[in-house]
Each structure stands twice: as C-alpha cells, then as structure tokens.
Specification:
This protein is an all-alpha fold. The protein has one domain (9-521): Amino acid/polyamine transporter I (Up-down Bundle), CATH 1.20.1740. The protein is 64% helix and 2% strand. The protein contains 19 helices and two strands. A two-stranded antiparallel sheet has the order 1-2. The termini are close together.
Length: 522
C-alpha cells in the first residue's frame, strides 16, 4: 500500500492561492471606491467561509470522495438535483468566458489604440469569436501543451502585471497623496446607508467562487480539522488585502465616470506610468500584452476542464450517449462544440444586442453568479439535510461548533446565496438599455429556461438511460495532478482516458469506472 504524504499548511494554501490574483475584477471593485473593503469583508465572511467549510465536510463524507459536486448533492438530495448542481457548475463557465475575453479585447484595443475594437459591437463580437474558437481548436489536440504554457502565462501574464499595478499604485499614492475616489470615511458611511445597492455585491461574490474545487482534497491536508478552517481564514484575509489594494489602485487614478470595466486595469497602469515614471510610459504596452497572454492561457485551461465534470453523470445514463465521447487526445469534442455554441449565442446577445459596454459586462457577471449560485444553494441545502440524518456516514472533517455551528454556518451561507441571486435581477447603474422591470423579467426568464432545460435533459435521460460502454474511463484527479496556476473554478476534477475498442476487448462498464484507480492505489 502506497503511503500518501500529507500536505503542509503552506502546500495546501497553494492549491487555492491562484484565486487571489483576480486582476480582471479590480475595475469592478474600483467602482465602489473605499466601500470595496466593506463588500469584500462581507463576501468573505457571510459567503466564502460557509461555502468552504460546508463543501469540505460534504467532500470528506464516506462515498463522496471521488464524484465531486454531483456526488455530494446526489447522495443526499437525489440524482436529479445532483445533475442540476453539476450542470450549472459547468454552465456558468460558458458565461464567464465572455467577461474574460472582453478583458483580452479591451487590453488589445488599448495597446493598439484601436478604439473601435472595444466600442463597435459587430467588430468586438467578431474578435470575440476569433479568440474563443481559435483557443477551442487549439485544445482539441489535448491539454498537454496548454498546461506547460499556463504555468508561464500565469506568472508572466497575471502575477507580474498585478504586482506592477500594486507597486505603481503605492508609488503614486505616496508621491502624490491624491486619489480619484472619496477617501472620507464619514461620506462613505453615508453612501453605504443611503445608496446601498445589493447589485453592487455581485463581483465580490464572483471573486470568491471556485473554492469547492480544493475542498475535494482536504483529506490530503495534515490535521484537516484544525488546519482547514485556518487555511480558509488566511485565504480570506489575503484575498481581502490584495483585492482591496487592486481595486483602490484602479480607483485612485481612474475616475469612476471614465472607468471601462474590461479596460480598467490597463487604464490604471497607463495613468500610473504617466504620473509616476513618465520615462517608462512605454511599459504600458508590455504590461498590456502580458495581460493578454495571461488571460489567453487561463481561458485555454478552462475550455476542456469543466466539461469533464459532466462525465460523472454517465453512471446514471443522464446525458445522451452521443455527447459522452472523447477523441484519442482524451478531449470530449462533442460537448466542447455544444459549449462553444452556447458561448457564441450568449456573447452575441451581450455584445451585439446589448452593446458590449460596461452594462453588458456587468450583465455577464450577473449571469455567471446567478448560474453558479444555483450549485452553491444546492450544496447548502444538501448539507443542511444531512446534518440531522441518523447513522450519518463517517467523515474526515466537520464544520466547527457542533450542530449549532453546522446550522449557523450553512444557514448564513444559504441566505446570503439567495440574496445575491436576487441581486442578479437588478441591473447595474451602467445598464441603461432596458427598464428595470424588463431587465428583471429577462433575467428571470433566462434562469427559468435554463432550469427547465436542465430538468428536461434529466427527465429524458433517465427515461432511457444509456449506461452501456463508452470509449473512455474516468478517475478523480489526485492532488499531485492539480495544476495550481489555474483558478480553482476553472480546474477539472476528473481525468478522462480514451479506450481503444477492439473485438477482443471486453466492453467497459461505466458503473465500474473507478475500479482501475482503486486497484492502482493498493
């Protein structure tokens, strides 16, 4: 029996550290000025920590160890809601691609001084499709090359530009002492009291999503009952610190009325170079190109990974057999094409129909959060249901505080999730295309159609389940295989391996897809 070496506190922290570098969200934080600190603390305490703790306990329950979100929810609420949870977890990525590619287009437009690329809806959408489908085509040959590039692109294109932004922000602050936002605490308190909008909260939740991906590996951590809560508290503290610095750095030099959400970071870098080190103003071009490189690497790593999470539903024959197919490079091509079609349609609506401006960017963030929070709501409901179960299965980790602590943490997380979902039906201040009521009805219709479509897929799939042979086998990724330079919400938790069918090869039964891996571990 192989002995698995447990991870240290710092080793496990690196599993989630990538989510601290969220420079593309800094402009959204900058819109709130000094109040960004308040929103980040609230998001961290009332939402992120409950998600992290409840997901960790669910992940370590006997029988839940290798199936991810689908198994966690399925084993408590049933296969229908397990399927909804994993389907929405994947679907939110299709909308999240839009804000990420908008960020790329904004940086290219700024560096090339090609304003039309970011303001002409048809040109912007054409560029969007070129970037997305170009990266998708590149991924069809497998993820091996991408994983090597992402390690470089993360450091050079995400970490380095973020550090430059933060360093320039501090230099600017100490040299000029002037900021473009209101630093008066009393004025900010009055703003919070009289002009608070729950819709403002959306980007702060988005910054913390994805922690459930690392919760699956809590059993690899030394003394998880003690160390995991400390890990999450440390992560929240670091995230609040870095996101506050990042958001305020942008807000310090770019007045909110001039802020473009997909260009805010490069706008700020350009202003800071000009005001602090004018002789290095050419550096904004370098930083802009590096940011493009970093985001391209990040998106490339997301295109295939989250799709693989849907393959765990094969054990119940829910998705049509035709789509659960991989090529010789272990890539689920047919589902990737479906994903691309969804991305193309939604991007057309947001870019061409709604203009692709700040309002469309905020709408894309709201759609992403709306879809993802359906998964989290089901996680909290599943968690609360199992708290009172008699003869509960053994688990490695429990939410601290006994039953009172379990209820309190889960209820706070559930209520905050429901409130934020409600906030996604309220348009941001920059969205002037539709009246508030029409906007709310449109968002509600979107959610209703997606939910009904998901339940219909489940209904049809379970009426005629196809759990025969597939041309792949699947296993849950081991912690040593996790690529830590990929943001947690974009990682994949399952490996697919193509199987060559032949006459003398017995058909592989999906209900035994973990058997090979268990044998390997012994």
């Amino acid at each position: 029996m192989a002995i698995n070496k447990k991870m240290s506190f710092f080793g496990f922290f690196t599993l989630t550290a990538a989510m601290l570098m969220s420079a593309d969200e800094y402009p959204a934080f900058a819109q709130s000025g000094l109040l960004a600190v308040v929103y980040l603390v609230l998001a961290g305490v009332v939402w992120f920590l409950p998600v992290a703790l409840c997901a960790a306990e669910l992940a370590t329950i006997d029988g839940n160890n290798e199936g991810g979100v689908y198994t966690w929810v399925k084993n408590i609420l049933g296969a229908r809601w397990g399927f909804v949870a994993v389907f929405f977890q994947w679907l939110q990525i299709t909308v999240n691609f839009i804000t990420m590619i908008y960020f790329i287009i904004g940086s290219i437009s700024y560096v090339l001084k090609w304003t039309a690329l970011n303001t002409n809806p048809w040109l912007k959408w054409g560029c969007f499709l070129l970037i997305y489908w170009g990266m998708t085509a590149w991924q069809l040959g497998g993820v091996g090359k991408t994983e090597k590039i992402v390690n470089v692109s993360f450091t050079a294109g995400i970490v380095f530009p973020s550090l430059v932004l933060l360093a320039l922000g501090l230099i600017y602050l100490f040299s000029s002492g002037q900021v473009a936002f209101d630093p008066n605490l009393s004025n900010n308190w009055q703003t919070l009291r009289h002009n608070f909008s729950i819709a403002t909260f959306v980007p702060y939740i988005l910054a913390f999503t994805g922690i459930e991906a690392s919760a699956s590996y809590i059993t690899d951590l030394k003394n998880p009952r003690k160390n995991y809560p400390l890990e999450m508290l440390t992560l929240v503290a670091f995230a609040i610190f870095l996101d506050t610095l990042g958001g305020l750095s942008v807000a310090a030099v770019v007045p909110v009325q001039n802020l473009t959400l997909n260009q805010g970071v490069i706008q700020a870098v350009g202003q800071m170079f000009a005001r602090t080190i004018p002789s290095l103003s050419w550096g904004v071009t370098i930083i802009g190109l590096l940011m493009v490189f970093g985001m391209i690497g990040e998106i490339s790593s997301w295109i295939i990974g989250p799709v693989k999470s849907l393959f765990v539903t094969a054990q119940d024959g829910i998705l049509p057999h035709y789509f659960l197919h991989v090529n010789r490079a272990d890539v689920p091509v047919r589902l990737i094409v479906v994903q691309g079609a969804i991305v193309s349609v939604i991007s057309f609506l947001l870019t061409v129909v709604f203009g692709g401006n700040n309002g469309a960017y905020q709408m894309a963030m709201s759609l992403t959060v709306m879809l993802y929070l359906v998964t989290y709501i089901l996680i909290f409901i599943a968690y609360l249901k199992q708290v009172n179960q008699s003869n509960k299965p053994a688990r490695t980790f429990k939410v601290p505080g006994g039953r009172v602590g379990q209820y309190l943490i889960a209820v706070v997380g559930l209520i905050s999730s429901l409130i934020v979902v409600g906030s996604t039906f309220v348009p941001g201040s920059d969205f002037q295309t539709l009246p508030i009521l029409i906007y709310a009805l449109m968002m509600a219709s979107f959610l209703a159609v997606i939910m009904m479509g998901t339940l219909l897929i489940y209904h049809v799939g379970t009426k005629r389940p196809e759990t025969g042979s597939y041309n792949w086998k699947i296993r849950h990724r081991k912690v040593q295989d996790v690529q830590r330079t990929v943001f947690p919400k974009g990682r994949y938790q399952h490996e697919l391996k193509y199987i060559e069918h032949s006459l003398d090869h017995e058909k592989q039964k999906v209900t035994q897809y973990f058997a090979d891996e268990h044998q390997h571990d012994k």
